[in-house]
Amino acid sequence: MIAPGTLDSKSVTLLWDKSSEKNPIYQLSVNGKQLETTNKTNYSFEQLKPNTWYTIKVTTKLNVGGSSELNTIRFKTRAEGKIYNILDYGAKADSQINNTKAIQRTIDACQSGGTVYIPKGTFLSGALYLKSNMTLYIETGGVLKGTTAVEDYLPMILNRFEGWEMETYASLINAGTLNRNGTYNVKNLKITGGGTIMGGGRKLGEAMTKTSGIRSRGRLICLMNCQDVSLSKLTITEPPCWTIHYIYSDNISCHDLNIITKNIRNGDGIDPDSSTDSYIFNCTFDTGDDCIAIKSGKNPEGFFVAKPTRNVQITHCDFKRGHGISIGSEMSGGVTEVLVQDCKAGNLLHGMQIKATKDRGGYVRNVRVIDCQLLQITVFSAVNYNNDGEAAPEIPTFENFMFKNIDMTMASPVGYAIDINGFKDPAHRLKNVNFTNIVLPADAKVSVKEAEKVKFTDVKTTAGLKPEYLLSNSSELVY
Length: 479
Hints:
Layout: E1 12-15, E2 25-30, E3 33-38, E4 42-45, E5 53-61, E6 67-76, E7 83-85, H1 100-109, E8 114-118, E9 121-125, E10 128-130, E11 134-138, E12 142-146, E13 157-161, E14 164-168, E15 173-175, E16 186-192, E17 196-198, H2 201-212, E18 221-224, E19 226-237, E20 244-247, E21 250-261, E22 270-273, E23 276-281, E24 284-287, E25 292-294, H3 299-305, E26 309-315, E27 318-322, E28 325-327, E29 335-341, E30 344-348, E31 352-355, E32 363-373, E33 377-380, E34 397-407, E35 418-421, E36 430-440, E37 445-449, E38 451-461, E39 468-472, E40 475-478
């Protein structure tokens, strides 16, 4: 498939499902001409011609020799649009000059299919508002830098934070307006270029908190009711809280991003929120909170809005530091069909984690974690934060999780390498969880509480032994 939002006049990014071959290598051909090979399940094609038909074939090299065709796709690149340089609209690369009006004038002037171009240099700005059928291109060496003055992010907008719809400051980059009824009001948007998006950081977040409360903070990039959006090939850093947040949106690609939010309070990397069909790949995370946090609203509001986050594919990402690759804790509208594959996680506080409280309602179902290097797997059913407000009318359901081919040999010898906790209500036990081909360090411990139908197959330590299992209030366990 074409990764959402990536097709333009000169480039496209393709995605495909992983071959069943061990350590697969993929051969790519364009219009019959053999091109490149890759071991990833994605590839970006550059320097294409505008308004031109292309046929691309992906085949898998077989370990026994020869190849097996995966698929062929045919597409036409877009017509080449006009480039709108922000310098032509009055912007200046000067860290003392606020370029908000000049850059917004450029965006407003940009016609359908056009590109707003930010050249090399640092351009200071407050809140900007993007629109459909445009590209925001930040050149390598270019920096779009957010101011630290709260008045540059006014007026307040309807947003969602920590599971509730509420008024917040605008973000540095905004697209769409919030509407829980399911319409998309910004489509076909691309943000790319090789440069840097840098927010107002901790200083701005603290100023927003002091003025209007901690939940008033804007994001760095916020997409609301958007469809077919691509964010790629950028360094993204210094948010006032969450970095990339998309709500009630569909078909979002985040790829080849370097996200850095060290020392930022609530410095999540990417937060898909009540959104469908997300593709996050080739990204690097060094964050002050969750690297990725998949959400869908909180407690009764999220439960009754009932807009799940569905089909999130996270592949070929490097999680260097942060709290976790997370689902929750706001998951009251439901989360389903999540794939984490070919990822590497370093020093994450909770590793791969699924988290909630009994007050959330909703569900997390059908999560697959395959061919990854992790240091910890956790399921929390009673997180001790963000649990204010009224409870949803029922306890959440956690079910159908699969962890397969996981290298956990670098896990800490302290605590539990695998720590899963369901809900105490017998009707809402964590259930149908399978661990297959997991390698743990010596003396590793596994804890299972309040669960049923949990199966451990070929789960061993580096010494070839079974880990120590600590089990309580659980049934139908195989280990």
